[in-house]
Each structure stands twice: as structure tokens, then as C-alpha cells.
């Protein structure tokens, strides 16, 4: 194994900047010197005088902690960073030294210490990046073509220990010193070896990195002294360096221990106050003084987590679930069960009644109400800033088992109502909760609107469900027709078209499934074409023509697509194959949708006509203009999420609020996309095969491993929205429920848009007044959302807006129905025009290709 070797040099003074003046060694003045002793809450001063920085990001707690020299700044996975405007002293060309004292908490993946550049430019501009890669110090830069040049050490730094890092660069050669030892250097030359690094006028950032979607590769831990020198400044090892460095770390350890003791005393006092507040809340809300639990309702679009102060997020306590939904819609709510702190764990069962219409004649039977316990999934520290790490309620398990309510904590259940064809009006029922000798009742008040959602979703979806993971979990060689039907029914109930974009099958799902669900399918693929010779490709394409004709006969032509060459813009080595395959397909079937999960860069534009960029591409005005040009060309525009984007754009990570999934419906309408793609919804099943015989009584692991590299992915819940149930059943997540609610929100806006167009030609005063209301609701108001990265995190604002839209849909439907029936009390504004009849239900608009 290569190891660092000790050296003895003459003039290293940075290590001793905070020791008495008599002990300091003379050094050249640094170009930049950040002591990391914040002089103001939001300002980092440069002691050299020119490069002051600003703290940005989330409000920080425990930001300043003891360091080797006075204080250090704690960075926490991208929650905050320090940005320094461009200055010449920050530009590093040649013959320089960078020195930093740091204590990393995490050394997994890439952890950025300092960088200067712009990763939204094409090609990317990176003057330099100093980071840890799996704990190994690196100096990186990019050449004029945007390719990496990397200098790194083979030995990783230990986590939770202070380290002193020095990096020099001169004419294409770097040196890296760790704790006074010179380390071997490995060089990766994807790019051109640079005698001088390429400077730019971008800002520098401490403690956080970036990719094209925003901040990334964030540092976790403490950063103390950080200096930049002109020339090769290496004098720290003069004399007995090891003894002095050890003494400095020991002194810091003493101050850290004192700081930790103060912190623990504050935490103990805060915990005592927290328990008193919880006891007061429970005492005031419980039905009787000795009740083992107390129930309250929480909307589906909100979520608690396992933090000790979870109860502060409950808002106004209530035992009435007030819901509203159209016909053909699903609507749910949570029941939070608070456990008495000085009691014992309670096991609580739930029984739902029929919902009875106010007229007493109509009912929504209890069989249309699902009630399942809401089980927590414990997350681990991700590589994105999150509000909480630990147990998060997500898996909805309608298996009949009671929910457990721990003392001083909470249990939860989820109740979902399927309205079906229920006549409009107010319905009432109850949910009875029983356990530990105690019973409580939650009243349910459901308003059914006087319109119906379409069976076929208006927003197309390509959320891949992997059969291989289903078969592995249930130990199946094949999936039976009954199991296939159950999977399809489950997905379609969530407005997800059954698919797997990676499946080689032609088509996927198969023809029998497509025919059975022809009135509900919104997307499917026609299988892969293997790249070979031109003749081999043409032969495969010719074999597909009969299949494509049969699909067209089923009326499903507009919903099929060819999907291959995944994220081609990031794998341009496959471009020649893509050119030959797409050319052959266009020749055989000119109107076929050729789908690509890439931003439409110039090289790809001739090949594809269905574009699926990542969500964050719509937040960049310049890239949005390109997308709009492709739409004007006649191409279809979707979007997708995977391990990107991150906040402020929404995603379906377990770490993010469940509102993110619901907002995808509103934002899809706002940006005018035709469909939404997500790469997998049962990816975690493979990670959890070892608990297959014990689930759901064993903890679920919320991470995955890269299919090709085997490296762990550090975003909890990425690629998993469903959980395995007994006997092949699929159990939903709270995130999936919110995603469907968002797809249903999209239906509301889609219906209102079409009704607005009809109201514009209507001839009654009522229609005219309703038209004015509708125009105020479309597009969604600015206080709700203006872009994919600018939307309100307040769930109530979305719910209120959705209900206002529903009421206007009812009014518009009634006004148009009244005009078509010629009711005498409707004042005519103009002579009757063409047919404007409308039923009380929304209908599916014709696909774009058939309009």
C-alpha cells in the first residue's frame, strides 16, 4: 500500500497563525486568508482584505464550533455555504498553494471544500475544485473542452479527526500534503494536462459544490483556517511539526469537550421543556384523563416525522376529517394517534362505516374506504440537505394489523375514500378507533362534486415498474395473468400507465394487456432495437411493422413510443447507433414517437421528437427557450425526475415533504408538459431481499445500489414508491398517494381549461360571470406557483386553490348545461350558437396526434 512519507521543510507558517507572535515563522503574505471566525452572522471576512464571503442557505444552528485556531465553521450537507464574489485573488492559474484545516464528518462520495466555476455553462467552467473523494484529497480542474484533470491521493482522511491539508500546483504538477506528510499523487487525464489552469469570473464557494441542477457534492464537517498563497509556500513542518500539531489537536479536543458539555446541558433543559409541552397538549386534547391515546386528523399532503418535537407540526387538532372529491376520484387523510407519555404502548384498530348522503338515500359503502396503518421507514444521512434523518411514515399497510402507538410518540393510519359514481352532495360517516380499553371516533365529512374525472389520465405517465424485482421478491419464475392484472389495476388506480421503459419486450406491456386496458393506457413502449449493421437494424424494424399496425387498430397509436439510448446526452458514445436506429424507425413509421431522456442538445435534435428533460431544465430561462422551440417544431415535451433535481425543484425522495409529489401535477400543467417519467417505483425491493420473510416486521432499508458500479446511492426512497404486500399484493406509500392527488389536481385544471374555452362562446349572464372566475384561476396564481423552482411549500394553499377550481368547474358545468337545455331563467347575451352541450363529467381530450 502507498503511504504518506514524512518530510522536513523550512517556512510553513499557516499552522501557527493563532499561536503567539514570537512562535510564528515569517511567510509571504497570503492572497486570501479566511480564519472562519465569523465576524457577523452572515459574513466571512478575508483577513487579507479583498475576498469577503456571504453565508447563504438555510438558517444555521451550531454553525460556529471550536476549531484548531479559535473557531471553525460547520457545514452540513449543503444546508448552507459561503459564496465569495469573483476577485482576481481567487483566480488560480499557476504556481500557487492552497491550505486548509478541516475535520470531515462524512467521507463518502464527493465532498467539496472550495471551488470556483460555473457548471451551467457549456462547456462547464471550473478553474479549480478542492474536495475529498471517498475521503481522498483532490485538486481538480477542467480544460477548454470541459473535461476533467484530476490530482488525487490514494489514502483517505479519517472521519471525525482534524487534518491539515496543503496543495501546491505548478505547470501541470501538483503536490498534496496531509498532516505534514507528502502523499503519492495519481493523475486522471480525461482532459488536457494544463500548464496553467483556466480562470473564469465565477464566484468561489466554500463548503458546497454544484452540478447543472444546483448545489451538490457538499461538505459535511468543520472547516477552519483556509489560505491561498502565490507560489509554493511549505514551511509548516519546520522543527518538530508532529509534536506541535498533536498539541494543537489536544487543545482543540479539550475545548470541543467543554463545548459538548454545554450543548448537552442545553439539550437536557430543552428536552424537559419539550416533555412538559407534550404533556400539556395531550392533557388538553385527550377525551379522558387516563386515555392511553388521543386521535387527531392530519391532511394527506402533510407529514410528521420521528423527531422529538413532532407534535409541533400538528397544527389545529381535530377529530373531523373534512374532504372533497369529484366522482371517480380518490381522497385520503391521516389519523395521528398520540401516545400518553407516562403510559404503555397501545395497539389500535380502525373500523370505518358507510358514508351516508345528507338525503339519507345514497351511500358510499365501507368497502370503498381503505384504512391501513402507516409504517415508518428509517432514513440514513443523504447527500442532500434535509430537515430530518430518522423514522419517517411512508408505507401504507392495509393488512388488518393494528397500529402501534408508543408512549410519548405517535402512531398513524391512512384512510382513503373512493367516490366511484356517488351522486354529488355531502356524505358523513365515522372511523372508530379502539385499543387498550379506549375508543375514539373520527367523524368524516365528504363533499362529492358534481363532475367526474376521466378514466384515462390526461397527463401521460411512464413510471417504470420492474417485473424482475417483483419476481425476485415473491420467488416467481413467471408472472401469471392474474398477477399481471393485479399489478396493472393497482397502477392504473394511481393514474400510472403500466410500463417499464427499459424492457426489451415488443410491446411492453404485452398486446393482451394493451387491449384489456385500451381505454386507460396513456403510454407504452414498442421494445428495443439492437444496434448492429444497417441491414440487421432494418430487419428488426420490418418485423415491428405488423405489430405497429395492430396497435394502431386498437386506437393506441398516439400512446406508443420507442424508448432506448437512456440519457444519451450523457453517453454520447452511443450517438452513431442512435442515428442509425432512429433513421430506420422514421423511415418505416414516420409518426412514431421517438423518446429521449435528454435535454434537446443540437446533436440530438434530428433524431428524436419526444423530449424528456429533467425537471430543473425548465427553471433555466435559456434552456426553457430551447424547449419551447422544440415544442413549436411539433415535438412533444415531457419531463422527468431521478436522483435529480433537488430543492427548490420538487422530487419524490423520502427525505422531502410529501407535498413535493402532489405539486408535480400543478407544475406539469403550469409548464405545459404532456407527460412525466420516473425511472422506477420498486427499486428498493432488491435491497431488502434479505428481510423478505420478515417484512413488514423488519426494518425496511431506504437506499439502493447502482446497477452497474454497485455503489450506494445516498438519497432515501429514490426509485421506490410501492412496498411488497402479502400474496403478491402491492402496498402504496404516502408519497404515491400524494402523487396521485397531484395527477387528479391536473385533471381539475385540464377540465377547467376546456370549460373556459366553451364559456367564451356561451350566451348567458351566468356563463359570463363564471368565465371571469375561471380566468382568475388559470394559470395557477403566483402565490401558489410560477415555475418548477418557485412554488409554495404551504399544503393548505394548494388545497384551497384546488377546491376553488372544483367549485368553478361545477358552476361552469351547470351554466353550460342550463344553456344547452334552454332554461328560461338564463338571461341570453347573444343568439344561440353552435352545440355547447356538456355533461357533468370531464372527458378525455383527444391525443395531440389525433386532434
Short description:
The chain is an alpha+beta fold and 851 residues long.
Query: Which overall shape is indicated by the principal axes computed on the Cα atoms?
Result: globular
* Cα end-to-end separation: 67 Å
Low-confidence stretches: 1-26, 824-851
Global mean pLDDT? 91
* Helix share, percent: 10-25%
How many DSSP H or I helices? 12
Number of strands: 45
Helices and strands: which structural class? Answer: alpha+beta
Strand content range: 25-35%
Sheet with most strands: 9 strands, antiparallel
Using the CA coordinates, give the radius of gyration.
Answer: 31 Å
What key attributes describe this structure?
alpha+beta, nine-stranded antiparallel sheet, disordered N terminus, 12 helices, globular, disordered C terminus
Amino acid at each position: 500500500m502507498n503511504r504518506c512519507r514524512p518530510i522536513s521543510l523550512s517556512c510553513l507558517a499557516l499552522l501557527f497563525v493563532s499561536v503567539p507572535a514570537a512562535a510564528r515563522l515569517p511567510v509571504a503574505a497570503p492572497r486570501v486568508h479566511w480564519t472562519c471566525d465569523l465576524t457577523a452572522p452572515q459574513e466571512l471576512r478575508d483577513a487579507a482584505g479583498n475576498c469577503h464571503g456571504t453565508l447563504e442557505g438555510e438558517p444555521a444552528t451550531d454553525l460556529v464550533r471550536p476549531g484548531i485556531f479559535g473557531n471553525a465553521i460547520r457545514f452540513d450537507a449543503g444546508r448552507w455555504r459561503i459564496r465569495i464574489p469573483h476577485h482576481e485573488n481567487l483566480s488560480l492559474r499557476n504556481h500557487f498553494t492552497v491550505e486548509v484545516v478541516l475535520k470531515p464528518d462524512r467521507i463518502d462520495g464527493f465532498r467539496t471544500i472550495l471551488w470556483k466555476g460555473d457548471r451551467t455553462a457549456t462547456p462547464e467552467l471550473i478553474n479549480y475544485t478542492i474536495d475529498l473523494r471517498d475521503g481522498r484529497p483532490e485538486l481538480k480542474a477542467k480544460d477548454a473542452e470541459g473535461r476533467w484533470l484530476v490530482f488525487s491521493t490514494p489514502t483517505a482522511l479519517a472521519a471525525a479527526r482534524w487534518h491539515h491539508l496543503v496543495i501546491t500546483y505548478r505547470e501541470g504538477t501538483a503536490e498534496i500534503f496531509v498532516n505534514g506528510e507528502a502523499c503519492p499523487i495519481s493523475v486522471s487525464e480525461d482532459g488536457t494536462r494544463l500548464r496553467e489552469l483556466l480562470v473564469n469570473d465565477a464566484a468561489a464557494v466554500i463548503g458546497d459544490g454544484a452540478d447543472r441542477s444546483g448545489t451538490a457534492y457538499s461538505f459535511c464537517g468543520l472547516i477552519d483556517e483556509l489560505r491561498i498563497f502565490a507560489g509554493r509556500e511549505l514551511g509548516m513542518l519546520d522543527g518538530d511539526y508532529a509534536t506541535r500539531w498533536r498539541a494543537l489537536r489536544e487543545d482543540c479536543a479539550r475545548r470541543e469537550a467543554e463545548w459538548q458539555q454545554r450543548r448537552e446541558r442545553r439539550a437536557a433543559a430543552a428536552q424537559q421543556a419539550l416533555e412538559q409541552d407534550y404533556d400539556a397538549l395531550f392533557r388538553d386534547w385527550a377525551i379522558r384523563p387516563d386515555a392511553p391515546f388521543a386521535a387527531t386528523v392530519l391532511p394527506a399532503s402533510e407529514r410528521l416525522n420521528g423527531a422529538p418535537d413532532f407534535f409541533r407540526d400538528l397544527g389545529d387538532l381535530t377529530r373531523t376529517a373534512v374532504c372533497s372529491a369529484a366522482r371517480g376520484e380518490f381522497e385520503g387523510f391521516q389519523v395521528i394517534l398520540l401516545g400518553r407519555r407516562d403510559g404503555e404502548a397501545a395497539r389500535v384498530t380502525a373500523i370505518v362505516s358507510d358514508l351516508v348522503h345528507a338525503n339519507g338515500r345514497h351511500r358510499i359503502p365501507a368497502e370503498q374506504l381503505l384504512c391501513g396503518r402507516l409504517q415508518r421507514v428509517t432514513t440514513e444521512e443523504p447527500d442532500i440537505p434535509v430537515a430530518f434523518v430518522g423514522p419517517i411514515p411512508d408505507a401504507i399497510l392495509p393488512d388488518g394489523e393494528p397500529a402501534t402507538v408508543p408512549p410519548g410518540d405517535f402512531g398513524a393510519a391512512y384512510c382513503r375514500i373512493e367516490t366511484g359514481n356517488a351522486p354529488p352532495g355531502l356524505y358523513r360517516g365515522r372511523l372508530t378507533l379502539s385499543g387498550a380499553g379506549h375508543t375514539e371516533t373520527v367523524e368524516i365529512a365528504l363533499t362529492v362534486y358534481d363532475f367526474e374525472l376521466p378514466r384515462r389520465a390526461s397527463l401521460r405517465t411512464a413510471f417504470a415498474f420492474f417485473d424482475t424485482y417483483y419476481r425476485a421478491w415473491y420467488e416467481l419464475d413467471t408472472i401469471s395473468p392474474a398477477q399481471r392484472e393485479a399489478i396493472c389495476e393497482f397502477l392504473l388506480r394511481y393514474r400510472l400507465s403500466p410500463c417499464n421503459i427499459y424492457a426489451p419486450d415488443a410491446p411492453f406491456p404485452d398486446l393482451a394487456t394493451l387491449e384489456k386496458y385500451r381505454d386507460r393506457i396513456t403510454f407504452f413502449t414498442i421494445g428495443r432495437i439492437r444496434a448492429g449493421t444497417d441491414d440487421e437494424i432494418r430487419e428488426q424494424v420490418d418485423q415491428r411493422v405488423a405489430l405497429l399496425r395492430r396497435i394502431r387498430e386498437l386506437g393506441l397509436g398516439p400512446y406508443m413510443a420507442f424508448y432506448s439510448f437512456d440519457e444519451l446526452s450523457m453517453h454520447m458514445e452511443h450517438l452513431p447507433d442512435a442515428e442509425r436506429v432512429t433513421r430506420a424507425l422514421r423511415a418505416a413509421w414516420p409518426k412514431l414517437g421517438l423518446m429521449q431522456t435528454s435535454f434537446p442538445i443540437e446533436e440530438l435534435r434530428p433524431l428524436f421528437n419526444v423530449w424528456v428533460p429533467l425537471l430543473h431544465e425548465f427553471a433555466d430561462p435559456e434552456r426553457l427557450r430551447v424547449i419551447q422551440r422544440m415544442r413549436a417544431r411539433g415535438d412533444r415535451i415531457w419531463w422527468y425526475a431521478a436522483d435529480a433535481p433537488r430543492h427548490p425543484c420538487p422530487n419524490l425522495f423520502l427525505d422531502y415533504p410529501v407535498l413535493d409529489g402532489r405539486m408535480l401535477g400543478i407544475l406539469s400543467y403550469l409548464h405545459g408538459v404532456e407527460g412525466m417519467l420516473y425511472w422506477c417505483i420498486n427499486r428498493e425491493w432488491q435491497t431488502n431481499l434479505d428481510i423478505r420473510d420478515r417484512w413488514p416486521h423488519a426494518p425496511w432499508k431506504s437506499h439502493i445500489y447502482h446497477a452497474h458500479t454497485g455503489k450506494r446511492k445516498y438519497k432515501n426512497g429514490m426509485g421506490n414508491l410501492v412496498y411488497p404486500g402479502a400474496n403478491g399484493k402491492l402496498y402504496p406509500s404516502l408519497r404515491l398517494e400524494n402523487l396521485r392527488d397531484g395527477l387528479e389536481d391536473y385533471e381539475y385544471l385540464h377540465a377547467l381549461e376546456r370549460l373556459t374555452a366553451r364559456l367564451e362562446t356561451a350566451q348567458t349572464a351566468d356563463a359570463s360571470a363564471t368565465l371571469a372566475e375561471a380566468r382568475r384561476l388559470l394559470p395557477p396564481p403566483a402565490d401558489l406557483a410560477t415555475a418548477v423552482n418557485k412554488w409554495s411549500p404551504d399544503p393548505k394553499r394548494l388545497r384551497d386553490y384546488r377546491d376553488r377550481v372544483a367549485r368553478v368547474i361545477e358552476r361552469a358545468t351547470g351554466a353550460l348545461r342550463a344553456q344547452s337545455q334552454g332554461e328560461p331563467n338564463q338571461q341570453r347575451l347573444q343568439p344561440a350558437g353552435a352545440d355547447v352541450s356538456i355533461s357533468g363529467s370531464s372527458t378525455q381530450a383527444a391525443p395531440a396526434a389525433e386532434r
